């Protein structure tokens, strides 16, 4: 007969109870606004952009690549509902449509401030704050006629509030960026050649959606961030036999399979398609399958996924 000692009983009942909220899948939806890369090819895909809907309201944008604003219009989303934009990094194919959104918002009844988050910069790439400043500054901006949205003194129906997240090779910790009553956002530094870049994890109503952004995997930070994701959006920008600069910037399919498996991802969505990967999807799947057994999808623009 097994004897339970009183001390063990005390231990058992004093252990914390983790209330793991099950994913309320019907309340959360991820929509693809851009599943392409930076190339000018006849693939009908916009460059990178993703939209998170909560209770049928468009709330969070991840990246604003060229063409993604056009798909935003087609999605039926209302820009006045968007709380924030998370930038993985400030390459053209991830950011160029910001001015399109801001000009378009002028014709809406948007009144709440727009929060923008993105990494710090370097000589050859803007930080989040430099990005909005250099677009909209009244004196030196590209579009000074939109400066009221960043100028505290000027009259405007809402303001753009930009937050730079410090990026460093040395800080590999997961950072808590936002704790909103409806959702939370965490970020971790990733390696995208010399360019500061972040991967993001968004949690809402017990569901987890993660985004690798562009990254090579050389900082080994991604697996903890994406742990137990219901949906992982991973960028399939290079094939397995890539060499030179591309493989310093991006993940190979075998690496995507490894992180999806290690993190116990429930569904893998492959985007950022490029000429070098778009016609090799069968090969990509078989390389990922060596590591990961869950569902693998190549979404098209405007496709939606419940977690
Ligand atoms: Zn890219």
Work out the strand percent: 15-25%
Tell me about the biggest sheet? 7 strands, mixed
Summarize model confidence as the mean pLDDT.
94
Total beta strands: 14
CATH topology: Metallo-beta-lactamase, Chain A
What is the class in the CATH system?
Alpha Beta
Low-confidence stretches: 11-18
The end-to-end span amounts to 46 Å
What is the chains' assembly state?
single chain
Structural class: alpha/beta
Strand order in space, largest sheet:
6-5-4-3-2-1-14
Bound molecules: zinc ion
Count of discrete structural domains = 1
Instruction: Tell me the Rg in angstroms.
Output: 21 Å
Q: What overall geometry do the principal axes of the alpha carbons give?
A: globular
Fraction in helix: 10-25%
In the CATH hierarchy, the architecture is: 4-Layer Sandwich
**How many helical elements?**
10
- Order of SSEs, N→C? HEEEHEHHEHEEEEEHEHHEHHEE
Question: Mind telling me the CATH superfamily name?
Answer: Ribonuclease Z/Hydroxyacylglutathione hydrolase-like
Account of the 3D structure:
This protein has ten helices and 14 strands. With 307 residues, it is α/β, with parallel strands linked by helices. It has helices spanning 6-14, 68-75, 92-95, 98-105, 128-136, 222-225, 244-249, 253-262, 275-278, 281-289; strands spanning 28-34, 49-54, 57-62, 84-86, 114-119, 160-165, 175-179, 183-190, 197-204, 207-211, 231-235, 268-271, 296-297, 304-305. Helix content is 23%, strand content 24%. A seven-stranded mixed beta sheet has the order 6-5-4-3-2-1-14. Strands 7-8-9-10-11-12-13 form a seven-stranded mixed beta sheet, with no helix packed on it. It has a single domain (24-302), classed as Metallo-beta-lactamase, Chain A. The longest helix is centred in the C-terminal third of the chain and has 10 residues, at 253-262. Strand 5, helix 5 (128-136) and strand 6 (160-165) form a beta-alpha-beta unit. Helix 8 (253-262) packs across helix 10 (281-289). Residues 37-38, 48, 91, 93-94, 214, 272 line the site of zinc ion.
